[in-house]
Write a structure and sequence with these properties.
The protein is mostly helical and 525 residues long. It has a domain at 278-504. 70% of the residues lie in helices and 3% in strands. The protein has 21 helices and two strands. It has helices at 8-21, 32-56, 89-105, 113-132, 136-145, 147-157, 162-189, 198-203, 208-225, 234-241, 244-269, 271-298, 302-321, 326-357, 373-386, 393-406, 413-442, 448-451, 461-479, 482-501, 504-507, and strands at residues 65-73, 78-84. A two-stranded antiparallel sheet has the order 1-2. It is globular, with a radius of gyration of 23 Å.
């Protein structure tokens, strides 16, 4: 096989979608056949992702690779255009990895299993497409495609308030998506040529005011998905009602779509506007870190506590994107992957704990560590990863964002000191609410009603295997970050150089005779 010419990304995207369409034809009464079928499809697609990565991806090349482009609707200049670079390849690998484990996590699902796995596989292809497509209209379509499975997964298999959570999710995310469509159409029709190809759009000579308007539109859409406060309220509700595999998809992949799009669309395609909005991103990131950490500390519902923890951790992503340093942007990418792994592991363990205790209220738990020692050990380890224990991926990612922002020369010293101090406060709050959570679940006096429950058993081999698979990259990246950073370094270094050129105070340092610009922004002093 000629790997250079094989349509890898198209195959990887369409395989799970095509496989999902065959599920209704599978003769299966109890769901056992369809779950094995879905797991095999997930494994095959993940194997294709890994094979395409190792045979067709060059770490040293910052540009798009594995590029494919086919005319789709020529009248609308809509093309099936896909490709992968350092921004998308790590997230494509993460999507395949997390989704395959989510299929295995869904093993206990017995209610409408065919529909459940149909939605999971359809979402699999849609999420990979979000990270791979290089046409703005196509990006909007696949962005919308992945909303539908999540809506049904929440509204059918969720908790008591599942209809409310699903409706709120679809209203928030679909409403945000309208800004993507409007901005994409505006960009495409701007100037003398009509195009929706992202590479061509990035080369268009947009005026500064036009860039600012586009940036604001995209920011609203991606702030919902990331999420950025105050557009975050759908996430705790969605997580509060979701099942364990849906938790894994929400925390592990869905939030990363917002961070990825913020880098791809806002920073890469609108660099001049990014120079104006970067301080806003920093402030929003700090608010995310502090506010969500404090809110998480106050939550008595276990799912909502971890959900607010996720919002807090994603604040580091926005600060890294706005740092104007190689290290800061690299830290933002690393934080997205790291949080995808850690968030998926924590929410899976929350689901496993709920299956045994039948409660999510911390006030009703306590003392179950003696009876569920494996779950206790796994929950503790994953919590340590979330609070950025050295040797775990979260520590490396947050440290890179810290140092990257602190060493940035795009901001005044006073602004940097304030931001770094507030980030440090957020980091201190994280172990407080996570360790107190562990204490309330596993330590203390046993709840007699809980410990006498017949389902209060320890982790089964399937659950241990899922957590072990997630911990391997968490610890591996923690000890040797280059495992991940080498994938995207070339792309992020190139992007940072372009972003720094858009900030006058930085660009002028390269000139022998600096000139003051009155028509462009200056960040800080």
């Amino acid at each position: 096989m000629n790997t250079a010419n094989f349509p890898w990304l198209t195959t990887i995207i369409l395989l799970p979608i095509a496989a999902s369409l065959l599920i209704p034809l599978i003769p299966d009464k109890d769901g056992k056949t369809v779950r094995w079928y879905s797991l095999i499809v997930g494994l095959i697609d993940f194997a294709l992702i890994v094979y395409a990565f190792y045979t067709g991806y060059d770490f040293s090349n910052p540009d798009l690779q594995l590029v494919e482009s086919y005319p789709w609707v020529p009248q609308l200049d809509l093309n099936w255009s896909v490709g992968a670079d350092g921004l998308s390849m790590p997230l494509i690998i993460l999507t395949g990895f997390i989704t395959t484990l989510a299929i295995l996590a869904a093993w206990p699902v017995t209610f409408k299993p065919k529909l459940f796995y149909f939605l999971i596989l359809a979402m699999y292809g849609g999420q990979i497409a979000v990270f791979a497509v290089q046409d703005m209209l196509l990006f909007f379509l696949v962005w919308e495609l992945e909303l539908v499975p999540i809506y049904f997964l929440l509204s059918i298999w969720g908790g008591k308030k599942r209809q409310y959570a699903a409706t709120k999710f679809i209203l928030y995310t679909a409403g945000g998506s309208l800004f993507i469509l409007l901005s994409a159409l505006t960009m495409g029709f701007y100037g003398d040529t009509v195009t929706f190809d992202m590479r061509s759009l990035a080369l268009k000579d947009f005026t500064l005011n036009f860039q600012l308007a586009l940036y604001a539109g995209f920011l609203i859409a991606y702030a919902v998905k990331l999420p950025i406060i105050p557009l975050h309220t759908w996430l705790p509700d969605a997580h509060g009602e979701a099942t364990a595999p849906v938790h894994m998809l929400l925390a592990g992949i869905l939030l990363k779509m917002g961070g990825y799009a913020l880098i791809r669309m806002n920073a890469q395609m609108l660099p001049d506007a990014h120079a104006y909005f970067a301080p806003v991103l920093v402030v929003l990131g700090v608010v995310n870190i502090i506010y969500a950490a404090l809110t998480s500390f106050a939550q008595r519902n276990l799912k909502r506590k971890i959900a607010y923890s996720s919002i807090s951790h994603m604040g580091f992503v926005t600060i890294g994107i706005a740092s104007f340093t190689d290290l800061g942007l690299s830290g933002a990418m690393l934080q997205m992957v790291s949080h995808g792994l850690i968030g998926a592991s924590l929410f899976f363990l929350v689901g496993a704990t709920y299956d045994r205790t039948h409660t999510l209220m911390l006030d009703e738990m306590g003392g179950v560590g003696k009876r569920m020692q494996k779950i206790f050990a796994m929950f503790t380890t994953c919590s340590m990863a979330s609070l950025a224990l050295p040797g775990m991926s979260g520590f490396v990612a947050e440290l890179m964002v810290f140092v990257g922002f602190a060493t940035s020369d795009a901001y005044s010293s006073t602004f940097k000191v304030i931001v770094v101090f507030l980030m440090a406060v957020g980091v201190i709050l994280t172990p407080i609410y996570l360790l107190s959570m562990l204490r309330e679940i596993f330590y203390g006096k046993e709840n007699e009603e809980l410990v006498s429950h017949q389902n209060l058993i320890d982790a089964e081999p399937r659950e241990v295997f899922i957590i072990a698979c997630l911990l391997v990259p968490i610890i591996g990246i923690g000890f040797y970050p280059k495992l991940l950073t080498q994938i995207y370094d070339a792309t992020t270094v190139q992007l940072t150089a372009r972003l720094r050129d858009s900030v006058p105070t930085l660009a002028q340092k390269k000139e022998e005779a600096p000139k003051v610009s009155l028509n462009a922004p200056t960040i800080g002093n």
